[in-house]
């Protein structure tokens, strides 16, 4: 099926690794033009080089932190100038915070809420005028099943994720008049840099493969394994496609069955 993404321009935040990088790759494979950002220029350059030559003329990278509204604005404008507009936005950049109630400080709460909300609102504010001029505009917010199913050891991230799911619903209603669809993809445990870093920090002596299998069993993942970043990218690309033109205000779980909510 032709997803209708060829020659459309999509901005993906946090595309130098994991889910963002897999999404960039999937979009380039569909013939889209892609602009992506991250904080570390070397990681971005390495990721771009790893994508190979196919589609490189349709890829723009920019260094910026999604918490910095001015930097995000410059990056998004550069994307629109380079490619002649913007048709889609994937708010992906971020990370989770392993904290419980007793070890989370006021600063942890402030930083976590700032990252999660600025990570959606700054790129959206910058891209909105361009999205409003697109014939098929879509926004996908990368979220987590934690939004609906909080984990005590991830208390700040769970609360922030719930807020972002709520915000996504409001945005879908507010932006419908501009023809902009807004949806969420809620992740379970996806095998990316987040987990390789945690495995390294845990220093258990267990191989990464065995550690992952134990983690999946411990968290009750029905499919018994962590997901792959490209399995998330498939859902993101589907929601961005003009073929999903009647889908807005919803969320898709990509979590291997770890979610317990029936809604
Ligand atoms: N993997 C999971 O199991 C899982 C589960 C639920 C939700 N998620 C969410 O999915 C998203 C992608 O995570 P991932 O697992 O793919 O992580 P990852 O491999 O660590 O990639 C994160 C990407 O975001 C960029 N980034 C991080 N903070 C940023 C900031 N403030 N401004 C701009 N770019 C930033 C990183 O580059 P720089 O570090 O160079 O900036 C990198 O490109 C995150 O929002 C994460 O919270 C992941």
Helix content: 40-55%
Total helical segments: 8
CATH C-level label of the largest domain: Alpha Beta
Report the mean per-residue pLDDT as an integer.
96
The geometry reads as globular
Query: Unreliable segments (pLDDT under 50, ≥5 consecutive)?
Result: none
Q: What share of residues are in beta strands?
A: 15-25%
Bound molecules: NADP nicotinamide-adenine-dinucleotide phosphate
The Rg value, from CA coordinates, equals 18 Å
What's the number of structural domains? Answer: 2
- SSE pattern: EHEHEHEHEHEEHHEHE
CATH topology name of the largest domain, in short, is: Rossmann fold
Instruction: Provide the structure class.
Output: alpha/beta
How far do the termini sit from each other?
A: 29 Å
| Strand tally | 9
- Walk across the major sheet and give the strand order: 3-2-1-4-5-6-9
CATH architecture of the largest domain: 3-Layer(aba) Sandwich
Largest sheet: 7 strands, parallel
Tell me the name of the CATH homologous superfamily of the largest domain: NAD(P)-binding Rossmann-like Domain
Key descriptive features of the protein:
263 residues, alpha/beta, Rossmann fold, 2 domains, seven-stranded parallel beta sheet, 8 helices
Model description:
With 263 residues, this protein is of the alpha/beta class. It folds into 2 domains: 9-190 and 228-254, NAD(P)-binding Rossmann-like Domain (Rossmann fold); 191-226, no CATH class. The chain has 8 helices and 9 strands. It has helices spanning 18-29, 41-50, 69-83, 106-132, 155-175, 193-202, 208-218, 229-240; strands at residues 9-13, 33-38, 59-63, 88-91, 137-144, 180-187, 190-191, 227-228, 251-254. It has a 7-stranded parallel β-sheet with strand order 3-2-1-4-5-6-9, sandwiched between helices. Strand 2 (33-38), helix 2 and strand 3 (59-63) form a beta-alpha-beta unit. Helix 1 crosses helix 8 (229-240) and helix 4 runs parallel beside helix 5. The radius of gyration is 18 Å and the shape is globular.
């Amino acid at each position: 099926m032709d997803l209708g993404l060829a020659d459309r321009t999509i901005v993906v935040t946090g595309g130098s690794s994991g889910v963002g990088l897999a999404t960039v790759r999937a979009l380039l494979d569909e013939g889209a033009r892609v602009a992506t950002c991250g904080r570390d220029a070397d990681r971005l350059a390495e990721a771009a080089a790893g994508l190979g030559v196919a589609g490189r003329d349709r890829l723009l990278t920019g260094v910026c932190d999604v918490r910095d509204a001015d930097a995000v604005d410059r990056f998004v404008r550069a994307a629109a100038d380079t490619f002649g507009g913007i048709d889609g936005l994937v708010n992906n950049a971020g990370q989770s915070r392993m904290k419980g109630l007793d070890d989370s400080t006021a600063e942890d709460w402030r930083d976590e809420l700032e990252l999660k909300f600025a990570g959606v609102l700054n790129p959206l504010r910058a891209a909105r005028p361009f999205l409003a001029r697109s014939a098929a505009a879509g926004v996908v917010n990368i979220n987590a099943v934690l939004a609906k199913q909080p984990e005590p050891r991830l208390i700040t991230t769970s609360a922030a994720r719930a807020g972002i799911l709520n915000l996504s619903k409001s945005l879908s209603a507010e932006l419908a008049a501009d023809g902009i669809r807004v949806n969420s993809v809620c992740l379970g445990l996806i095998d990316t840099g987040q987990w390789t870093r945690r495995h390294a920090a845990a220093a258990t002596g267990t191989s990464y493969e065995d550690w992952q299998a134990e983690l999946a069993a411990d968290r009750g993942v029905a499919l018994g394994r962590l997901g792959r970043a490209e399995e998330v990218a498939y859902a993101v690309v589907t929601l961005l496609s003009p073929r999903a033109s009647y889908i807005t205000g919803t969320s898709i779980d990509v979590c291997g069955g770890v979610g317990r909510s029936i809604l």
